[in-house]
Amino acid sequence: MRLSIVLVILRKELLETLRDRRTFVSLVLLPMMLYPLFALLMSRMAGAEMDALEARPSKIAVWGELSPDVSAALAAGENKLDIMPWHGVPAPLRRDLEAGAIAPPAPAPPRPPGPPRKGSNAEAAGAEAKADTKPRDADRPDAAVALAARALVGAREVHAVLVPWRGFSEDVRAGKAARVTLYYDSVWGDSDFAADRLDYALARARDGLLVAREGEKALPKGFTSGLEVVSRNVAPDERRVGKVLGTIMPMMLILMSLLGGFLRAADMTAGEKERGTMQTLLCAPLLPIEIITGKFLAVSVVSLFTALVNVASLGLTLRRILPGEMDVPFSAHVLTFALLVPVTLLFSALFLAVAAFARDFKDAQNLLTPVYLPVMLLSMVTSLPGMELSVATSFVPVLNVALLIKAIYLGDVAPDLVLFTIGSSTLFAALTLVFAARVFEREDVLLGGRGSFRAVFSFERQKGGIPSLGFSLGAFAVVLVVMFYASFLVEKTTNKTAQLAATQLGLFFLPALAAIAASGASMRETLGLRMPRPRALVGAVLAGLSGGAAVAAIATRLVPVPPEFAEKLGDALLLDGQPLWVLLIVIAVLPALCEETLFRGLLFSGLTRAGFGVALVASSLLFGLAHGSIYRLLPTFSLGLLLGYARHETRSLLPGILVHGINNALAITILAVRPPWLEKLLQNDQVPVGLGVGAALVLALGVVLMREPRKADARG
Amino acid sequence: MPPEATAPDAALAAEGLVKHYGPTIAVAGLDLQVRPGEVVGLLGPNGAGKTTALRMLAGILRPTQGRVRIGGIDMAERPLEAKALIGFLSGDTQLYQRLSPRETLQYFGRLHGLPEAALTTRIDELVRDLEMASFADRPSATLSAGQKQRANIARAFLHAPSVLILDEPTNALDVLSGRFIVESIRKERAKGRAILFSTHIMSEAEYLCDRIALIHEGRIVDEGEVPDLCARAGDAKNLTDAFLYHVERGAPRVDGASSGGAA
């Protein structure tokens, strides 16, 4: 592939894009207008809703006797409270309340320090905190009242129920803290608003009482309040907008970023076919891979630029239109853009590949829409409440990035999930690129009409040899996806031992073997089923014994493991106190066999088609990522390098299985037995330098022993 | 195919070309040579396999069987070198709508690896020779059909290819524009280019071509100079009658020279 040619194609495609008004509109104009307009519209709507709420008086049922002064204060016209004494109270409950047979709920604990929330100044006249009407409140003394209030509010007869407990008036008169409880429904906007109004009115009433008491006791003015706090909520409308924007932003960002690529991909493939320029391009002295790369880069640049404009427009909107409400740091925008990169690359390749099947631009849009729809659905799922990024969702394309963007804007991001998301998105992008290259190798697709999708997806069974790069990556991605769905099944069994064993055998080992068999590649070559020299086996044993300690000595100093994490991992690995021999089978033997088959067998062999270096780094990275934590990434990645080296040098899977198995066995034995002398040695949970150096020397010896002279070297 | 079927001096040579699209056989064994300075016309009704044959010769389509040599270079083995020697033009090719003819020429010049200075000179030369000065810098979307086809011709001639493959280049052009294209092709022949040219306009073929190959149902039914073709077609009065004679008979003429190949 000649870079100069690729650049010529890229440059021409970009020049055409710049001159296309349609693309300019969807690329720059639309995003620049979308976010500000959306924010304005939302705040306008929220404002209108607010106005309507303001206009309606709140109906408050009062179940009890308020003192005359408090009663008068609440009834004041500006409060817009419609006080309805004893409205809707069941007769027996009224009797109990009047008799004082029901105890008021215990006062709520003081609010933790933090940003002030609506209603935090609610302790009017020494009132109790508002009581929620949740089922768990059934044990509370006022359960009967709460139930009756919930029924009344639920029937929309009143907006809230206020209960001044028996003795309220006497307490007020005696200068004690009088108790009231407010029952309302925070989900119903009118009820929530009524509670706000009552809070405010009660606070005013309290202030009146305090001033009166100061007068009675001849205290200096302000003695009782000590502090005069005037708080004013400046942006009640925008807060709602921020929340709404936060939940739908990821969807808008992703969909808008892909839109630019969508149009360009259709134009560059089907459009060129329609105009007949595709065949002139094909008869120029160019390789298909140069054409696809140039076009892929062009679509990517356009998409990335759209993504950038979108992120910028969103950022500016948040700053200018919703000031102070969403305090999103600049770095969050940078990270968001970075996350859009793999998604954009993935869809640039996918759009190109799919659009290449179309006869003309219109046809391309028809074909691309089904590709675009799942993206829409996946990113819409993001806005569902409770949908959060987890280890499982971080492997679902699009959804992972959308969820991560949501988490970034709502300010809660787990670093290892960022890593998984970027890792898996990059893997998917690479796969689609392989697919797109395959499509562009097909003349009938590029020249004529539809061609057949099936021909592109079909693969010819190989006769022996190692699997192809695309096949290995594809099979690995399938294993990932199957793992995602299977994790729901496996989760159901509470037996952790069975869970781990099932995962290893059912999700790593068998799928890997099935994939190799399906590809028609040689089992022997792919898995390296050969007996290495005895000295290589000795080397593997040495490396297995020392590798873990050597790696840990460095890794724990570079990325310190939080003790809670180490403890949690340790507990998880001990499998609820299984005997050591079970641990050795499930934690050492099975992973050594199954993970090596998948990672150093199927995956590594296919990857070697792109070169040993690529295979080593990529397989180790995926191996590290598969271990599911940022704290384990460096150790497992390093172990992956060692295992990949062993596989390559000895051309056999066996030394790797030995290294992996011994390493795990050693670790789990130490964890289970916890010999006191070793605990003493590992001060601060770190491998001491001396032990680390010793282990490194043993490891080096093991590595040298595993080296096998290549045929080329053996000449001399 | 017997190797002696290829003349040693042929700039373009097809040997036993076959193309299947699934069950459909578009080209069923085609042998053809074009020598430098020669214009060969490929004549046939719609669906005879002309376009498929020319696309295989230009290296856009891979033949199911047979092979193509351009200047002695095997298309399947060294496609980039072979394609570098070909200028291809088809009647339904349009230009990049948002680029001017000059930009289009620059683009293809760079794809052919022409150095910038030489490219600029060459483009100026083509703009002058093909009388494109008035529209060379306008967006192609605004050009007339004749102007567009001149720009297309310029693109095919740009890298001074030794072989020109022209698929109905005068298709949908008015008489004036068509005549201009035909004259340009004659000038290229004078420069020693080997030209393979397909058309269904008989007068054009008679005027331009040194030899004519009649193609029907994916194979060449007769090949030679116009008088010979007429003589072999039951003493046809002109090329049109000779053409009709073969099409209506529908079967390949048994001659040995042209119809060998796949069954």
Description:
The complex is a heterodimer of chains A (716) and B (263). With 716 residues, chain A is mainly α. Chain A has 27 helices and 4 strands. Chain A has helices at 3-18, 21-55, 68-75, 91-99, 143-154, 168-174, 189-216, 236-275, 277-283, 288-320, 330-355, 361-381, 399-409, 415-440, 443-447, 453-457, 469-492, 496-519, 523-527, 534-558, 563-573, 580-607, 612-626, 630-650, 654-673, 676-681, 689-706, and strands at residues 58-62, 81-85, 160-164, 180-184. Chain A has a 4-stranded mixed sheet. The longest helix of chain A has 40 residues, at 236-275. By secondary structure, chain B is α/β, with parallel strands linked by helices. Chain B has one domain: 3-Layer(aba) Sandwich (Rossmann fold). Chain B has helices at 50-58, 79-84, 101-111, 116-129, 145-157, 175-190, 202-208, 226-232, 239-249; strands at residues 12-21, 24-34, 39-43, 65-70, 73-74, 86-90, 163-167, 194-199, 211-216, 219-224. Chain B has a 6-stranded mixed sheet with strand order 6-7-8-3-9-10, with helices on both faces. Chain B has a 4-stranded antiparallel sheet with strand order 2-1-4-5. In chain B, strand 4 (65-70) and strand 5 form a beta hairpin. Classes of the chains: A mainly alpha (716), B alpha/beta (263). The A-B interface holds A 5, 8-9, 12, 15-16, 19-20, 275-277, 279-287, 443-444, 447-448 and B 21, 55, 58-62, 79-81, 83-84, 86, 88, 90, 92-99, 103, 107-108, 110-113, 139, 155.
